[in-house]
Amino acid sequence: MLLALDVGNTNLTIGAFDGAKLVAHWRLRTVQDQTADEWGILLRNLFSLSGHDIAKVDGVVISSVVPPLDLSLASMAPRYFRSEALFVNPADAGLVMRVDQPAEVGADRVINSLAAFEKYGGPCVIVDLGTAVNFDVVSAKGEYLGGVLTAGIGISIAALFSKTARLPMVAFREPEKLIGTNTVACLQSGFYYGSLGMIDGILKRLLEELGPETKVIATGGQATLIARGSTYIQHVDAHLTLEGLRLLWERKHRA
Asked: Does domain 2-87 have CATH number 2.40.128.270?
């Protein structure tokens, strides 16, 4: 069994694979000061509560964009799973990196691109709606061409709330109607349609450059909500990053 960890700035996504099948997955807050033992105990509890045998885990693969956590996770893997963790290295992902500084590309972006090209083919654009909104572009030949980065939806909501005295914090949701008739409804409409307009606006320009045969895949926390109103998003793949981690593990071990 393979344990896959996607460590983001806000959330930690965990997947357990039995062969190619994702048999369990969890989503937790990213806590940067947890020790190796705390991570190990937490993961053991998750496996136990889900009825899966943690003793069957014989591999650990990690995508991390939070460097302070890397040491504790690297220490946790051999202590609790008798396996050295494989951390994602953009240079080893199997994609030709057509960017100025390949080492600067986030591990999650590389893994998403690997999984999307494997599952949907190229050219493709991956929209990852997390702490940031990432647009990553892969050519028809499987080349990573770069992308577009902007602030995530949650950050935008929190920033407005922190900088205004009378506007309330609101949940991100699809509004019942465009024109709000109270403050909460106005904010929800603005955040939803503002985010949707920004995402579709960038996708329109990308598709004009890449061509109409380009596949567009969305993943991340708000992917389903945005995809419902999007003109260009064709697929929602909630576990794209975990699938990419499994693919990377299999490629490395076949090699």
From this structure: no
